[in-house]
């Protein structure tokens, strides 16, 4: 078996909310998503990073992501279409992303042409005692890949699997058995399986990379480091908090393993970050019910004052089902529920000193989902919510059961836990305002983009520490060698040039050999940096438009005037400044969201007569 290290073999929470059952989307992605999803997968394909977080708490990213670069055999001048498959396995579901890329220019980054997405419930941890069923789930999801990727490309298409919450919560031997099953499924598949293709992601990594994602998308990593925002991620099995401390007292009083130092964009960041295993929203339910570690579950009924008095039902998590009920003769309501849930956070969650002062935090995953369910924010927009708003709504739900509690009998418990976690756990004031969001600039708030950005920054280090022949194909190496040799020739048609050795053999002169290697490294970094800067510049010009798109999908409900105007202005901008490919993609997106508006169809037919 070829398994990557299981990290924290019994793990933390999925850093995103429950995925939808069997959701399938083949729509072309937005210009912004195209750039960053490209960056996410391309950096995984580019080279395995052997770099680490610097300083107090080192994390080896090569262990997590590995080298996913298949050997290429096509001629350099061929227009290449290639694919990549990524599994995101959380505590409540498993997702597969199948990306399609087009390599139009040999020296440029490929273009993300399409994403096929599919997800299934429950999470693989539900099959801890029957790993063969977990393998069946992965096989089902791989069918999506087989339908998307042409058979001729299967052997060239890398497949990667990263697990988070569910597997870290399991005993090591059970998590390992699931990973082995996934690895077996991968090995029997027709796809390219890189080394370390199957592994569990470290909980700390999730928090750090989510922080990078949010701060990059909000434009804060290029500015004064003191203006960054913190992130709060509430999964099913664990919760993460990550922020850049403003006070040295916070740094000095924090446990040593809570502080992580790393470099990015020519700045050094020392983050306060921790993942609390067992404090995700669903794991907290078990703690409040007193069900953690219980045996003989089929004969026990776990009661809670947080549940409606007459409620009796089942709750499933981590592969187990629990019989639960309200307290028919006891005290119920917000106060009694709070007392139960305080035991879940008191003495477990650390309180950073400066959180009692005003701080800016983005919160997502179950924070977002339950705020939507409680009617505190609109699902399509997100919004700002004070902790006292959560508390007020929790009291209403707990003290006056309504239709909401009939739909979700755990809503009182979940909202109360959020209040206890934020106020009594982390130590936020009730007046603290949280920005609740699922996406920032139409990009999902998750660890994936942060990983991509970090890996791109470490690309330079990878190039500088390796011989070019180790990260370039033989064809690329020879082509670059010839280009550099021609560029260094003296001017004049008859100027003599140095005879180069065949293939990738080293130059005979040691001094010239060192110079050639350094020149190659410089050229590779320079080329990639130019492409990266160009992409970043193009994205920045479109951020305002992307942020104005509040409903990218079709709905019979009329769009607001501001959104219609945003589409008009965005189309005009792209027609004037964009490439033909960008224009086509934007019209495709627009005609989905604005399908009921004749003006956009007329405009599309006028501008793209052969496409509409």
From TrEMBL:
ATP binds at residues 236-240. Its main location: endoplasmic reticulum. It is found in: Endoplasmic reticulum; Nucleus; Secreted. InterPro entries: GDA1_CD39_NTPase, HAT_PRP39_C, TPR-like_helical_dom_sf. Pathway: Protein modification; protein glycosylation. Its EC number is 3.6.1.6. Its cofactor is Mg(2+); Ca(2+). GO terms for cellular component: endoplasmic reticulum; extracellular region. The active site is at 206 (proton acceptor). It is an enzyme of class 3 (hydrolase). Signal peptide: none annotated. GO terms for molecular function: ATP binding; nucleoside diphosphate phosphatase activity. It catalyses: UDP + H2O = UMP + phosphate + H(+); ADP + H2O = AMP + phosphate + H(+); IDP + H2O = IMP + phosphate + H(+); CDP + H2O = CMP + phosphate + H(+). The keyword Signal applies. Keywords: ATP-binding, Calcium, Disulfide bond, Endoplasmic reticulum, Glycoprotein, Hydrolase, Magnesium, mRNA processing, mRNA splicing, Nucleotide-binding, Nucleus, Repeat, Secreted, Signal. Pfam families: GDA1_CD39, HAT_PRP39_C. Residues 488-510 are annotated as: Disordered. Belongs to the GDA1/CD39 NTPase family. Monomer; active form. Homodimer; disulfide-linked. Homodimers are enzymatically inactive. PANTHER family: ADENOSINE/GUANOSINE DIPHOSPHATASE, NUCLEOSIDE DIPHOSPHATE PHOSPHATASE ENTPD5. Hydrolyzes nucleoside diphosphates with a preference for GDP, IDP and UDP compared to ADP and CDP. In the lumen of the endoplasmic reticulum, hydrolyzes UDP that acts as an end-product feedback inhibitor of the UDP-Glc:glycoprotein glucosyltransferases. UMP can be transported back by an UDP-sugar antiporter to the cytosol where it is consumed to regenerate UDP-glucose. Therefore, it positively regulates protein reglucosylation by clearing UDP from the ER lumen and by promoting the regeneration of UDP-glucose. This is nucleoside diphosphate phosphatase. It comes from Cyprinus carpio (Common carp). The gene is LOC109060754.
């Amino acid at each position: 078996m070829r398994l990557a290290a299981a990290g924290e073999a019994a793990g933390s929470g999925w850093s995103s909310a429950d995925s939808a059952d069997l959701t399938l989307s083949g729509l072309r992605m937005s210009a912004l998503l195209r750039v960053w999803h490209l960056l996410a997968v391309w950096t995984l394909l580019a080279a395995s990073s052997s770099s680490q977080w610097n300083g107090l708490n080192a994390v080896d990213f090569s262990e997590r992501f590995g080298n996913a670069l298949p050997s290429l055999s096509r001629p350099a001048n061929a227009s290449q279409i290639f694919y990549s498959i990524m599994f995101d396995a959380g505590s409540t579901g498993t997702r597969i992303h199948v990306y399609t890329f087009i390599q139009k220019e040999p020296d440029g980054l490929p273009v993300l042409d399409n994403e096929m997405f599919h997800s299934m419930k429950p999470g693989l941890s539900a099959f801890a005692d029957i790993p063969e069923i977990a393998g069946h789930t992965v096989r089902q999801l791989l069918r999506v890949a087989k339908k998307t990727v042409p058979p001729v490309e299967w052997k060239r298409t890398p497949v990667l699997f990263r697990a988070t919450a569910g597997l870290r919560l399991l005993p090591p031997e059970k998590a390992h058995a699931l990973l082995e099953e996934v690895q077996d499924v991968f090995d029997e598949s027709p796809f390219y399986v890189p080394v370390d293709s199957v592994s569990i992601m470290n909980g700390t990594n999730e928090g750090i990379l989510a922080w990078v994602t949010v701060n990059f998308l909000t434009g804060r990593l290029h500015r004064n480091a003191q203006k960054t925002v913190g992130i709060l991620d509430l999964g099913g099995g664990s919760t993460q908090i990550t922020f850049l401390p403003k006070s040295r007292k916070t740094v000095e009083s924090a446990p040593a393993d809570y502080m992580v130092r790393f470099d990015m964009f020519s700045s050094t960041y020392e983050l306060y970050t921790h993942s609390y295993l067992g404090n995700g929203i669903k794991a907290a339910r078990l703690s409040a019910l007193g069900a953690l570690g219980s045996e003989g579950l089929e004969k026990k009924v776990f009661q809670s004052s947080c549940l409606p008095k007459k409620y009796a039902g089942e709750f499933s998590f981590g592969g187990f089902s629990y019989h639960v009920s309200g307290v028919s003769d006891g005290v119920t309501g917000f106060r009694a529920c709070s007392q139960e849930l305080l035991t879940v956070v008191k003495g477990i969650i650390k309180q950073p000193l400066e959180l009692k002062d005003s701080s800016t935090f983005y919160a997502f995953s179950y924070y977002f989902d339950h705020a939507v369910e409680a009617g505190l924010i609109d699902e399509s927009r997100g919004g700002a919510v004070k902790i006292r708003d959560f508390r007020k709504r929790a009291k209403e739900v707990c003290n006056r059961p309504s239709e909401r509690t009939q739909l979700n009998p755990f809503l009182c418990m979940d909202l109360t836990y959020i209040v206890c976690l934020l106020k009594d756990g982390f130590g936020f004031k009730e007046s603290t305002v949280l920005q609740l969001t699922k996406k920032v600039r139409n990009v999902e708030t998750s660890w994936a983009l942060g990983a991509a950005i970090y890996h791109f920054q470490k690309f330079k280090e990878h190039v500088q520490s390796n011989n070019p022949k180790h990260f370039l194909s033989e064809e690329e190496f020879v082509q670059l060698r010839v280009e550099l040799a021609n560029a260094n020739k003296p001017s004049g048609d008859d100027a003599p040039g140095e005879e180069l050795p065949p293939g990738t053999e080293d130059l005979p002169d040691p001094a010239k050999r060192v110079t050639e290697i350094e020149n190659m490294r410089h050229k590779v970094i320079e080329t990639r940096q130019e492409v990266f800067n160009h992409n970043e510049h193009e994205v920045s010009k479109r951020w305002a438009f992307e942020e104005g798109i509040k409903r990218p999908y079709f709905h019979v409900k009329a769009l607001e005037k501001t959104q219609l105007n945003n589409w008009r202005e965005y189309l005009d901008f792209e027609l004037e400044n964009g490439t033909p490919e960008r224009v086509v993609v934007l019209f495709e997106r627009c005609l989905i969201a604005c399908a009921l508006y004749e003006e956009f169809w007329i405009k599309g037919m006028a501008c793209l007569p052969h496409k509409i």
